[in-house]
Input
Amino acid sequence: MQATANATTVLYDGSCPICSREIQQYKKGDPQGEICWLDVSSPNFVAPPGQSAEALMQRFHVIRPDGSIVSGAAAFVHLWEQLPGWKKLARVGRLPGMLNLMEFGCEKFLHFRPKLQKIFA
Output
């Protein structure tokens, strides 16, 4: 599935067992299929203009309906805002200073992700 206009598009690393499990949880909150889910690790994946699959594999990214791309904590908060069961968490993420704290956590997770992938593989 390719990105569609007026829809949020989630770019995720489907080769990461942790990421895949997390995405499956988010997909449960999107039963109408209103969000476009793109596995960057898929051989059929075509990166958006100005992006590379390699760079997109390094972090969680979301393409907003206006075409802008956000990554890390901002991408998670944007996704949560789209999912009914996650809206409260999105509001917490929008509190002053929370995005910075969450981004710090994302960076720490990315540092340990290769080791964690081996455990969850």
